[in-house]
Amino acid sequence: MNVTMVSYEVDPFAKVGGLADVVGTLPKFLKKIVDKINVIMPFHKVVEENIKKYNLPLEKVAEDLYPISHSFKYPFSVYKSHLPDTDIPIYFIKNENLFSTKDIYEYPNKEHQTSYFSDCVLSFIKNYLSDTEIIHINDWQTSLISVYLKNNYRDDPILSKTSTILTIHNLGYQGIFPPEILNISGLPGYLYNIDALEFFGQINFLKGGILFSDIINTVSKTYAEEIQTEEYGYKLDGVLKVRNDDLYGILNGIDYNIFNPETDKSIPYNFNKDKLENKNKNKVYLQEKLGLPKNENVPILSFIGRIVEQKGIDLISEILDYLTLLDVQIIILGTGEKRYEDLLSKYQNKYPKKLSINIKFDKDLAQLIYAGSDIFIMPSKYEPCGLGQMYAMRYGTIPIVRYTGGLADTVREFSCETLSGTGFGFYEYSSSNLLIKILKSIHLYNREKNCWKKLITNAMNEDFSWNKSADEYHYIYKRALSKKRF
Ligand SMILES: Nc1ncnc2c1ncn2[C@@H]1O[C@H](COP(=O)(O)OP(=O)(O)O[C@H]2O[C@H](CO)[C@@H](O)[C@H](O)[C@H]2O)[C@@H](O)[C@H]1O
């Protein structure tokens, strides 16, 4: 079984969110069960920086290649490296004009960039990775790959032999553009049709991925159900229901070797569940680093993530004033929508001794926050899987979540009576529900020390490694091979 994964982000070469973590780690676990695995991504500007930072090799393997159908007849070259500490090849599609923005999602005409990239990937696979049997695409940016394959290349002697899997990491982002993009991409005009890519007078790339991929999956079982409802379906629930027989939910894992509090080099004090005093030392180190008063007895609440509506930022900001009345410290790390960034930054000036608002992307600081805080809040409006809560639990930091999507599948409500459970959560999306769970956890932290310790142990005992999920991917790969849709 030969698999080629395609993604816009792969850690550590370019990362904005959880997609990068998944495509950066899943191939390592799939390697044990498939014959061959390759990864392809764009040569974003930041890739070069990270290749140097992580001291990884880079060689040019092809140049003067062209897309097959796309109307942009610009040449591209291909560079090769490997995923760190593995021999898994990763190929970068390079075109100076199309992938040169500092922020990887900043390019003004994203439909030009992503359609060009998708066709270039197929051109490269046809010429250099022709033994590929499964192309595993991710999110809307790579969705046109399935559309090209099942329309433009259905008679191509090499490409027609490949099966496709689409993983939806976030249905909230679909890639919706004016109809002219069909012509520019070199895709047939008949796709402007309600049963194909047409979507309220526009073209929807993700809809194309859903309709033309052999198998579709999303990143938790609950989210796979939720997206077939009007509330979570972002107007694609009907299309997803049509593909219900081929739609799976496979929970993401995390890399237990990298995210290991016992060996993690990015935190000053390593720890495990029997040596929690070192977790507190990380806390004091974190407080000092962020200019908060040093006190290992005050609970730290943290949030790490993209600062966007999805993540429940409005709920957090609604209760910040009240939280500062309590003896707690709050740390926020993230970037995203300017309106939320500005809103949070205002609180920083108001409560400098209680709050640390960090509007930036900083992987090392993220690790330190997972390790040094006590409670991790993730009150998402919707959450396909969520990795933050899993990292937090691995580092003995207790999650408070809204029970939706992957958060519902990974966090179990703790009870001091039965001593079972791994965190706290609520269902109805409201700031008072979030506040109640925060108050409850602070009460346990301060007054029920034994309960709290058991809760930490339970959270640290959870197994969110990739092994089980990699087996499930293996299963859907087999299904994709046996079931080609057209
Ligand atoms: N400012 C910052 N500095 C440092 N690190 C930062 C950061 N902001 C975010 N991160 C990191 O980015 C990752 C975020 O991953 P999540 O899965 O929680 O959310 P995201 O919405 O990006 O992913 C989407 O895809 C993933 C993968 O499938 C799904 O889990 C999720 O539900 C879906 O929304 C974590 O590793 C976090 O530590």
Brief summary:
Residues 292-451 form the Glycosyl transferase family domain. The chain has 486 residues and is α/β, with parallel strands linked by helices.
**Broad structural category:** alpha/beta
How many discrete domains?
A: 2
Radius of gyration: 23 Å
Beta-strand content: 15-25%
- The fold-level CATH name of the largest domain is Rossmann fold
- How far the N terminus sits from the C terminus, by CA atoms, comes to 20 Å
Instruction: Indicate the CATH architecture of the largest domain.
Output: 3-Layer(aba) Sandwich
Find the CATH superfamily of the largest domain.
Answer: Glycogen Phosphorylase B
Strand order, biggest sheet? 3-4-5-2-1-6-7-11-12
How many helices? The count is 17
Helix content: 25-40%
Classified by CATH, the class of the largest domain is Alpha Beta
Q: How does the overall form come out from the CA principal axes?
A: globular
Overall average residue pLDDT: 96
